[in-house]
Amino acid sequence: MTIATIQTCKTGSDEPNITAKDGVILEGDNATKAVNELYKNIRDISVGNDEKIMPIHNTHLLCVIYHAQKDDKGRIRPALVLWDKNEDLNKVKETLKVMGLDRERFDELYTQYQKATRECESIKKIGGGAIVGACCLGFISLIITKGNAIGAIVSGVIGAVIGVGIAVWKIKK
Fold it and tell me: pTM surpassing 0.90?
């Protein structure tokens, strides 16, 4: 399921937002229901107006992307595009197409999102490696040295360095 919405070009008019779901422009009650569903998912999230893709509740992704056509006062029109995180991106792009949104720009934003996600996962792995290495060598040293705290601390630091090295090696592999 993909839902997208954007304000109309005419400011101050009674025209509703332009809304699409799964590649089809919606009108009337169907459009209202789709927008309500979108906002139900993002109501507690600070979205802002910068172009980006962000995870929502670990079940969806949200893209804020600018429409090429500005409103009648010359202002940018950010569109909100929400989709299930396991949705086929080609289906998402069908909705982008009917909304007149730039699919190449979406690809750029999605690439940035993937890179940021990989970097975050790498940091978690490195931190985890440091903790595991420190705990293992610190505990072993504490047993071997029969309670020598300084030896355990030094071994823990060495273990953390080894753990980070292993995590970095696995990430680059």
Answer: no
